[in-house]
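Can you give me the bound-state structure? Components:
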Amino acid sequence: MLNVKVLGAGCPNCKRLEATVQKVAAKHGLPVEIEKVTDFEEIMKWPIMATPGLVVNDKLVSAGRIPSESEIAAWLTA
Amino acid sequence: MSRLLHPSIASPQRSDLRSVFILGLSAVVWFVAYNAIQPLANWLTYDLFRLPAGSHLGESVAFFLYDVPKILLLLSGMIFLITVVRSFFSPEQTRAFLGGKREGVGNVMAAALGVVTPFCSCSAVPLFIGFVESGIPLGVTFSFLVAAPLINEVALVMLFGLFGWKVAALYVLSGLIIAVLAGVVIGRLKLERYVADFVWQIKTGHGGGVDGKPTWTQRFEMAWQSTREIVGKVWLYVVIGIAVGAGIHGYVPESALVAIMGKNAWWSVPAAVLLGVPLYSNAAGIMPVVSALMEKGASLGTVLAFMMAVVGLSLPEMIILRRVLRPQLIAIFIGILTVAIIATGYLFNLVM
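Here's the bound-state model for the whole set.
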């Protein structure tokens, strides 16, 4: 089971990122558990300065943008 | 590495070349289209619809048919370019630039970087914490936080398209000055006690930063994505705004508004600022109306103050910043910004 965290306080881009991750996971049949981190004290434990942030298995992979589906697929299957 | 990776990572040079080719082709199409708008609008209005030149309806229709494609083309082209420029900057780099800068120099740099660093008001909090935590003075941080939304790309394009480059340049310049001054004042007032306590205690994670340098293809993809997003969000407002503006253009008599929106009506600037605050994010739709009003006698300072109030005094951003700032500091922030915008309006009404 992959643990994916979406860091962001409910901005539209955070929701879009979450939906994209879900879509990619479904497409490749990957079991993922998506956790939404909305509390700033929690968010700031990762070195990010722009939301949404994406964390895959406790590793920060992107911040401040919505990565493309192919990028997300690469992180999920790495 | 899996096959799922984007092809551009596999062969960056080749894919970049193709992107540049597509981009060049789009640029040519853009220029041809942009230059064809005026003759096309005139032909449609006066030849196809057979509206008499000089009539109220004819003037309005020609104005609408010219302005809608012009503004939408300008918006798409310039937002694309602006996003490509911004892809060379990141909040992390900006923070590194600003680290250890004195007040004054720091404020000027922060305001300038606020214009080019990609920023969305939803990221105001992590950015604020990131700046403050790395020791950047509060005043310098605020110069950034004022400039980033105040000098707005959509507003810039609208001003450029409707009033020309001089007004657009004045907008950027006065926005920068306001950001520097607001930051210096906030710095001098020593308001650190009004920042939420947890901000000072937070220890952000370090190391493991993310992005490497994007390829050109990735920059263009990002630019295309944000162009689609922004134009998709504002186009309807633009069309409605220009339709109302076109009506005013054709039907309201010349100088009808000198008395209420001219430079001699002292209350027009504060009224414009008050009116601008709740219109956040509708800059695109309001500007064509304002532009048509100006033609009938409203003054430039009033227009600039209005534009800045619309984008700079953003309620959503204040609500988000409430998580890290005490209400007193938010009130001071809004107060300083309001005074500065009103002063800018009067200044331009005075000198122009």
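A couple of observations. Chain B has 17 helices and no strands. The CA atoms of residues 178 and 340 of chain B lie 6 Å apart.
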